[in-house]
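This section describes the prediction task in plain terms. A model, or a person checking by hand, is given the sequence of a single protein chain and must write out its three-dimensional structure as a string of tokens. No templates, partner chains or ligands are provided. The sample shown here is typical of the held-out split.
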Amino acid sequence: MKRLTRQKDQDTQSKQETTEREGTQTCPECESSSLTRSPDESEISCEACGLVIEEEVIDRGPEWRAFNAAERDSKSRVGAPTTQTMHDKGLTTTIDWKNKDAYGRSLSSDKRSQMNRLRKWQERIRTKDAGERNLQFALSETDRMASALGVPRSVREVASVLYRRALDEDLIRGRSIEGVATSTLYAACRMEGIPRSLDEVAAVSRVNRMEIGRTYRYISQELGLEMEPVNPKKYVPRFCSELDLPEEVQAKANEIIDTTAEQGMLSGKSPTGYAAAAIYASALLCNEKKTQKEVADVAQVTEVTIRNRYQEQISAMGLPN
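The expected answer:
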């Protein structure tokens, strides 16, 4: 214990000496005092002229080298980080499905039977009560829907944290597990700025749209989630990509949305329908004509919605119909 304390004191003292030396030292080339240390702390350089003033040969990284992600993972000697997307946070042991030993040799029939029994019991004891089984099912549903929607890992983590909060505050009682899991995923998409409409989330869920919306409003109110209105511009890049439209159309659609939003026309309108109408109008203006049905199918809105929003936007922009 004394040795560890002495080592910490020495490290702290060396860092303080380095900081003091950097603060008083000046560049011999331009006499500037703006000196910075590289991220790996191997050299000190001048911000003004770029001269390397002091260079150390201490390598603070691992002793092995890796040239790709797979090689780096195989050589790393630490476990996977904890994650909120698993009910046990990824800390339990998992028995491999391969019937091979540590040397890659096939197991005997007796050993294979033993490993099958161990896998079965290991799967049973992962959840100790109904609450953990509830959480395991909900997080697996969240992961399935997130994969179908193509959202990043950060959204899945936020959705899992929201579901855990709802479970701790007993907000799931009287509601379906799938409904709460879907509503927390939709809330996570909005919190992370990932444009996914309620219809898109409902399409990959096992509950209807009305239940998702009702549960989402309840969860966001009880958990105190401050949700801002969705900006229609967030849907424009994805819709234009699916319609194979150039950057010119995307820029014009964003301009239409900004101009009409300043006039207060966005209030009370569906963001997906508003974005779809702006894309339809900008495509016509840029001679990249798309039918209303094509745009409506991508945005998952009706052609009537596009026609109504299109007429309003064209009138606000002062353009002829």
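For orientation: The first strand starts at residue 35 and ends at 37.
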